[in-house]
Design a protein that fits this description.
single chain, Rossmann fold, 2 helices, 5 strands, globular
Length: 108
């Protein structure tokens, strides 16, 4: 089964957190590699979309992320159901405070 979607977490994976917003080393190259692997890369985070868009735009402006990142598909993560609901997908992120860990995940 080939991967069709990569779902990325924001806090602790791409940046330090939504407050300090320090990009992880090699962020731009990592995002470019994800896009090269699959056509659909989505943001799957508990950070609300408006705040995420501001952070993403800043990362693009500072050249830490490719231009497409500011417009990446956003999938709201529901802390109660924790259902990614994306077939043939991979979630890339850390375990959050609710203990969420999808079956198809790459943990840091």
């Amino acid at each position: 089964m080939s991967i069709q979607v990569i779902a990325l977490d924001l806090e602790g994976t791409l940046i330090s957190n939504a407050h300090s917003q320090i990009p992880q080393p090699g962020l731009r190259r990592f995002l470019e590699s994800c896009k090269e692997l699959v056509g659909r890369v989505v943001m799957f985070t508990t950070v609300d979309e408006l705040r995420f868009r501001r952070i993403a735009s800043q990362l693009v402006k500072e050249r830490h992320a490719p231009h497409w990142f500011a417009e990446i598909e956003y999938v709201a993560r529901d802390c109660e159901t924790q259902n990614l609901a994306l077939s043939r997908s991979w979630y890339i992120g850390g375990r959050d405070t609710a203990g969420f860990r999808p079956a198809n995940s790459i943990q840091q």
